[in-house]
Structures are given as structure tokens and as C-alpha cells.
Amino acid sequence: MARKHLTGEFFMNGDIACAEGAISAGCRFFAGYPITPATEIAERMAERMPEVGGTFIQMEDEIASMAAILGASWAGAKSMTATSGPGFSLMMENIGLGIMMEAPCVVTDVQRAGPSTGLPTLVAQGDMMQARWGSHGCYSIIALSPSSAQEMYELTIRAFNLSEKYRLPVLLMADEAVAHMTEKVTIPPPEEIELYTRRKPDVPPQKYLPYLPGADLVPAMAIAGEGYGFHTTGLTHDEKGYPVMTAEEQEKLIRRLVEKIEVNKDDIIEYEEQGTEDAEVVVCSYGVSARISKFAVERARQEGIKAGMLKLVTVWPFPEGRIKRLAKKVKAFVVPEINCGQISLEVERCAGGAAKTIPVPHMGGSVHHPDTILDAIRKAAR
Amino acid sequence: MSRINLNHKHPMDAYLRTDRIPHIWCPGCGIGTVLEVFLTGLLKSGLALDKVVIVSGIGCTGRVAGYIKLDSFHTTHGRALPFATGLKLANPELKVVVFSGDGDLFSIGGNHFIHAARRNVDMTVLCVNNFTYGMTGGQAAPTTPLTARSTTSPYGNYEQPFNIPYLAAASGAVYVARWTAVHVRRLETSITEALLKKGFSLVEAISPCPTVYGRMNRQPTGLDHMKYYRENSIIKHDADPREVDIEQNGKIIVGKFVDIERPTFSDIQAQVLGKTFGAEAVATGAKRK
Ligand SMILES: Cc1ncc(C[n+]2csc(CCOP(=O)(O)OP(=O)(O)O)c2C)c(N)n1
Ligand code: SF4
Ligand SMILES: [Mg+2]
Q: How far is the CA of B31 from the centre of ligand 2 (A)?
């Protein structure tokens, strides 16, 4: 008998947990192209999609995979692709199309060390700024960062919910360490999982304006084949979805695309804190680096240093407000990440000089040694 | 002589986004002709229009998606086919039509084309071949005949072009036809046949681009192109696709070249998955949600 939704406790790696999260979220279309360390997601989906009545297709490349999940999204399916740096680069073009057409879907990037082919099998977090700005033009994005197999499962569901709610491709910015880490994953029964599905038009086709925003700045979405006869384009467009090549329409559309994230950021932004009430030094980290940071913070506490932890769950939009408030009362932020310092720049910008920002860069291939982070905390506390 | 009444309704108005007219195409351009022929062929097919979706890439031809009053998608340059693949596989009830230019489908989208044909995903591709990149001002395309001039082959093209029907046939298309903008009736018949054909069908419509291609190749008006097509086309059904290359100032072989049966992606998928999950579980197509 085919397995539908899994429920219970499992020992699985982050990639598999991501695939199961997608299935729990209602994903029924997966298109992908093999790449380490994300291949297991595609392999799991190849096995699981037919079991749950969905479609799996291995496309000819990542450009095609991204285009296919947008098409599937417009056919009404919850859709996903998964890749790593080289494929993520290829997806940028159609991530932009997804932003412009406002097509819900999920893209998982299991980060490995780059640039280029880099270290194909080893960890990094070097695509964080690419996630934010990688497609050309100006836009806002949602990106989440899991730091355990359990979070690979849960945040994949959250990524689908956010994508359906705000109508855009949502990025799950995983890393090789978390994706290949095998640990306990608890999958609740389906009825306990909260799911969100895109708002459909509540007017007849003649009255439907595909890009008329609702109160939350998100338009209702018709799907292909239901008689709405709508048009959608990657060109700058008006509420009818028709191309309008003017600065005014550009101003209106792009402002809305950015503001639909901005005005809903309290619903989107998630982070976890530990010991920040009295902290003098706050370690701000995400993904696998947050796990190691947590260990370093505990050690610092044992040494009597007032250290705290701010773990980013949502990385984009950036929790600017929280950093600003913390900056007023802490001495310094320590930002360990497996890149040359991408999120630390954001922390520094938000801290605005009120507190110091100490990056702890690491070029990738391995995770930080906790002592490296601990040393940075010690220096910051001095 | 009666004057032209601009308020006359066009017979295809019901299927066009008339609120977007005037369109962007130049006088004498063939895209409008191909569009009208497509709509006529579509109506003749009897397909339920609510289920027909149009997907275009980027280019002058790509703008077609914005003028047809059906669910229509104007995607990115070259990516219409994989986008269309996602639409079709996520809802097999849709009749998916990709309507795009030669540069879009065979240069930047060439890889997607051969793979979509190989998979035999059930869809119809209508390619307007004007031998150039019209939208960007007449650069060489992978269809530009040898020695033809373009803004990026100012001394004459020295790249061997693709023979589109041969590429399509070799990649696995089950229906391949080529006509020019002069052959409106035959083109219409091929479009209807292609739409009703199960599997990956391709219709190539050779079409005037007087503004940029014609101007550089001694055919400065649409009429020059049409005369040329009329005088130089040779109808040869079932011609071997290997032998339908197009040469500058040469003959154009047109006709239906391929019309074969081959199981589609979804047929084979259902067959293979049926072995594990039972025919019932996979046979329902659209119900697989
Ligand atoms: C990635 C990308 N590269 C280049 C372009 C610029 N561009 C727009 S249309 C086009 C060529 C279109 O040629 P074709 O598909 O033959 O359409 P036509 O205009 O001739 O109908 C190009 C190169 C683009 N839009 N996107
Ligand atoms: S540039 Fe050429 S292809 Fe484009 S609209 Fe003008 S005539 Fe047609
Ligand atoms: Mg062209």
C-alpha cells in the first residue's frame, strides 16, 4: 500500500525531511535537476510524488525546473524545486518571473561552498545575499533558514504557507550540514498541520482584475483552465495584468511588490532568542552556524560572560526592528556565518553604530569550530 | 473606392483583447496573419476554449500571448516550453499551446525544445520563423540563412542555421509541418491538426519581418516577402525533414512532414506507474491532485 502522509517519529536527514515537509504542505508538483547536496530531495520526491498523487519531473536543467514549477503553480498545484549554488544561479531568471507574476512556489537551496563548482559536497552559507538580490531588478523576497532536520520539515511547510499567502517564490536557504544531518524528525498527523492556500477570486471572470491588490496588498489568484481568461507577464503591468511601459506603472507595481512584504513582515519574520534579556554580547546566526553558536554562547555563560543568542529563522525580510532594539542595550553583536560576512553587513547596518558588529567569517568546507565563536564572544565582552 | 472604416469589427475580436489594440507589430509584419490563422484553426479544432492556454516567450512573436483572450502567459526569453510543461503536467486537462519566435524557441530555448519533444509532452508549438531577432532589431538568429545579412552579420551570415522541421523530427515530435504566411488555408489546417494531435506537435510558420530582416535582405515590404513565398514555395508533403533546409534566395519546401503515433509522456508515465500503483491511481490525469 502506498504511503500517503507519514505521521510519527522518524530518523531522517534534512533533505528527506524537506521533501516530507513539502508533502505535508500539499506540494504535488516537483521539478528538479540533480545536484549535491540537494539531490536526495529530488530522489525522495521521485519516490513520494506518485504515492501521494503528485507529479515528479526531472527537467533538463535548473532554468527549466524553475520555469516548470511556475507553470505548475499557475495550473493550481503547490510546487517546489530544490538545488544548490550552481543551480540556484540558473534559477535566478525565473525567480524574478515568479516575483513579477506573483506565482507561489518554493525553492530550496542547499548551500555548498562556491563560487562556481567550489566544494560540491561541503557546507557553506554563501548564497544568502544571492537569495536577497540574485535576480535582476528591485524586489523583496522571503527566505527562511533551517538549522535542524526537524526545521527542514517545519520550515518547508512554512515556506509553502508564506508563498501561498503572499504569492511569491519563497526560498528555503538550507546548508549542506543541516541537509545531510540525520536526526529525529517528528511529523504530526495531517489534521494538526496548519495550511494556507492562495486566495481565489470571488468575482466572475468579467469582473476579475488579476492584479488588483487586496487589503494585504496581495491580489486574488485565478488558475489556468477555470474560465478567467487572464493574462500574466513578466513585463511591468497594470491591475489587468496588461503590459504598461511607463515609469508611473513601474513605480506603482514595484512599490506594491516590495510593500506587500513590508506591511506583512510581523507575520513573516520569525526568530528565536536565548538569554538576550541581560546580554551584553548577542550572537546572531542562522542555519547550521546557529547550532554551533548556541554551544559557544552556553560556554561563554559558564565563563560568566553575559552572552545571548538571536537565531534567525526568517532571514529575508531581515528582522531589522529586533536588531535595532537590541543594539540599544548590548555592547556587540557577533555574527558567525559560513561566508565572508553577508548577514553581518545587515546586522551592522541595523545596529547603526549603537552596538559593535563583529563578523566571524568562515569560507566554507566545514562549520565553525565553537572555540572560534567563543573567542569572538570573549573579545566582544572585553 | 470606399474608405477603410477603422470602426469595423474584426471577425476575431471575440478572441482578442481588443482593449489592447493597436498592437505593437509593424505594418507588413506576418505575426498578425499567423495569429489570425491560429485563432481560425483553433476554433475549427472545436477544443473547449476555457481549457486552452497560450504560453509565449519573449520577442515580437512572444507578444501574441498578450493579445489572445484566453488564459495566457508571457514568460521569459526561451523558457515558454518548460513553463508550459509545468502547466500541462500539473493539469493534464489543459490544452497547452506555445506560440513564440524562432530565436526564442531555437536559440536560448533550444535545449528546452529538444527535451520537450523528446518527452513528447502533449502540447502544440507554433513557431513564427522570421529568420531573425525582430524585437531586438534584426540580429542573426539560429535560423538566419547562410549569407543573409543581419545587424550582427553585417557582411553576411557565416553560421549554418538550424533546419527546424529536421530538429523537431529528430527530437521526437509526432507532428511537424511548415508553411509560410502566404499559405493561410494550409497553415490553418495544419494548426487544427496539430492541436488535435496527441503529443508534441510543431508548426513552423515562415513569416515576414520587413522592418528589420527584410530591410537588410532586399525585401523591404511585407508584400515583397509574400511574393517571394508565393513564387518560391514548393509543397511537398512527407518530404524527408533532412532535405528541407532553407537557403538564402532559395526554394522553401513546405508541407506536412511528420505525422506519426508515439506514446506521450503521460501515457508512458501512467503505464510505468500503473505497475506499482494500479491503473486506477494514475489513469485519471487531472484528478491526480
Ligand atoms: C535572457 C534574455 N536575453 C536577451 C533578451 C533580449 N531579447 C528579447 S526578444 C529577443 C529575440 C527574439 O527573437 P525571436 O524569438 O525570433 O522573436 P521575434 O522578435 O523575431 O518574433 C532577444 C534576444 C531577453 N529578453 N532575455
Ligand atoms: S520588427 Fe519585424 S517581427 Fe517585429 S513587429 Fe516589426 S516586422 Fe514584425
Ligand atoms: Mg524571430
A: 8
* pLDDT tens digits along B163-195: 999 999 999 999 999 999 999 999 999 999 999
Q: Is residue A227 part of a domain?
A: no
- How many folded domains does chain A comprise? 2
- State the complex-level ipTM: 0.98
Partner residue facing B71 (CB), from A59, A63, A228: A228
Domain that includes residue A66, residue range: 8-192
Ligand 1: which of B106, B136, B213 to mutate, judged by most atoms within 8 Å of the beta carbon?
B136
Asked if residue B8 is part of any domain, the answer here is no
Tens-digit pLDDT profile for residues A45-92: 999 999 999 999 999 999 999 999 999 999 999 999 999 999 999 999
How far does the centroid of ligand 2 lie from the alpha carbon of residue B207, in Å? 10
Please give the number of the atom of ligand 2 that sits closest to the Cα of B101. Answer: 3
Q: Is the pTM of this model over 0.90?
A: yes
Give CA–CA dist B41/B184, Å, rounded: 10
CATH of the domain at A117: 3.40.50.970
CB contact under 8 A, A67 and B76: yes
B58 → chain A, closest CA residue? A234
CB atoms within 10 A of CB A335: 28
Q: Which alpha helices (DSSP H) does A134-198 contain, by range? A: 149-166, 176-179
The boundaries of the domain holding residue B185 are 13-262
Q: Which of B19, B53, B90 sits opposite A79 (nearest CB)?
A: B90
CB pairs under 8 A between A and B: 151
Q: CA torsion, points A51, A98, A107, A81, in degrees to nearest 10?
A: 40
Q: What is the CATH number of the domain that holds B173?
A: 3.40.50.970
Q: Residues A173, A278: one domain?
A: no
Alpha helices (H) in B197-241, listed in sequence order: 215-216, 222-232
Helix axes A149-166, A14-25, angle to 10 degrees: 40
User: Which atom, in ligand 2's list, is nearest to the CA of B25?
Assistant: 5
Q: Which residue of A has its CA nearest to B24?
A: A243
